[in-house]
Queue: 3 jobs
Job 1
Amino acid sequence: MWDFDHCDPRRCSGKKLARQGLIQDLRVGQRFRGVVVSPKGTQPVSPADRDIVAQHGVAVVECSWARLDEVPFNKIASPHERLLPYLVATNPVNYGKPWRLNCVEALAAAFYITGFDSYAERLLSGFGWGHSFYEVNKHLLNKYKTCESAEAVSAMQEEILAELEKSYDESRRTVGATDGVDGEDLLVPNPNHHHPPESSSEEDEDEEEEGAGTGEVGGPDKAERK
């Protein structure tokens, strides 16, 4: 990972993975040939990236959601920059928030989608809450895994968001009818209307928290050698 030290080292999942020997730091400007989960990506990670991940692994950018402008993304070199599709965070800071994945969640998501479930589980197993990421996102991850290309993942994401929007509208109508108010917006705005950058950073309202990391996680073969 490329680590910009934006988060508290005691709470940073990327740094914890490094202490466990499961992730390696990358230097700014150092070229990485694997998949990089980055808000600067132009297409989502997909099962089509499996061979790239198997050979070269996955990297993330460790930074704060609020300080993305400080990250020199032009110096983070990879021919395979990828976004993450719609998923829900289960980390303690951003539990239940769509898109706001931290480093370990972003890495695990990339491994799940590309078919390396055991390695995703290995990364998450070091966190007490780690099992909940798959439990909450299983139905989404399984849908993305059926796609053959990045375009198909994008289409699946739009289908998922449309279903969420429909469910939200139905819930709003139900609440309005129950309360005798027709058409009034009684629920909080649908969080899916706003798409923050699909990086792996996380931050709560009052303090900076870990974000998209700049580190490397090896593919399954590398994992076995660690």
Job 2
Amino acid sequence: MEEVVPQSHPYVPRDLELPGYVPVVLSQSTIVGVYFSCSLVVVSIIWIISGRFQKISKIDKLLMCWWAFTGLTHAILEGYFVFSPEFYKDKTAFYLAEVWKEYSKGDSRYAARDAGVVSVEGITAVLEGPACLLAVYAIATKKSYNYILQFAISLGQLYGTAVYFVTSLLDGDNFAASMFYYYAYYVLANSFWVVIPSLIAIRCWKKICAACAVQGQKKNKLQ
């Protein structure tokens, strides 16, 4: 029996081969702090801009902030992961590479370039990212496709998150370096893309049904 040689990285499984791996340079607090700071700036800017549009409710303003935040996260953060297969070799302490080196402690499938994860993230970055930004515009300008678009994106996010969790379970659900990383990164960080899209999907479903009911009443009156 061949002896398994431990690899010089912090990920699980320990025999995961990552030739050329370069340890994380930035601290966890720096990585998380920069992400939250940038997110706060984006949300603040969108909130201020949304105030310039007339007759937009507070809920719609919050939705604009959410779609801008999640859209840029999908397009920039996840987009970098999809198109940078060797991020774990980065020696420059480039922020986006550091993010994925750190997040891989909660799910090593990212460092390992798991086909399922790359596929889900690819669709999310290329399709859902721009669609989220389109939703910001649709809400601000009250486009007719506003609720349908939000409903479709939310379903896409829920589907992607479901595939993400289910494939991990089917493969043994043993990809976190510790229980802390498992719950902080894998569970908590992804839970926002379960709860918020669910609430948005329910709201949009009700709005669409109400609009269809009104349209049906108008047709009945004309007959």
Job 3
Amino acid sequence: MCPNNTGNSRSAPSTAPPAAAPSAPYAPQPMPFAPTVPVVNKPNQWSTGLCSCFEDFSSCATTCCCPCITFGQNAEIIDRGTTSCIGAGLVYYMLAHACCSCIYTYTYRKKLRSLYGLKEEPCADFFVHCCCHFCAICQEYRELQNQGFDPSLGWLTNVDSFNRDGALAPPTIATPMAR
């Protein structure tokens, strides 16, 4: 209803909502561990080559026999614990039966590259995973290791080890057996 100026002293009730009190801006909660990644203008090199699978024979053997395990471990670290190793491994396992697991796995290579400013080499991430699938998963595992993570331990254990004394705890050396 439009107000008219014919001398009617009634005024229409205000339909505007009352002004809200200013509130503090939303502050996201910090993660228990958030490694800082430097802003890099020039992309970094991968710490190992795509075909350097035998630099870590245990991950190479695991990936050849059951790639869903290695991929699940990688995915949990890359997603900082929001994706579980078992969940990512099961998705991989189901997609592998349809011969389309590379559609899922290349996205994690892309995330890993963006986390550490790595070059997209030797070609696009999708093609690396389509043509050299097991080698790509092994390379990503080695890259996480060289960045200070142990993907086989899971995200929470890695966070605990990074937060302990503010540094990564040194590895324990097993003493040889004596006769």
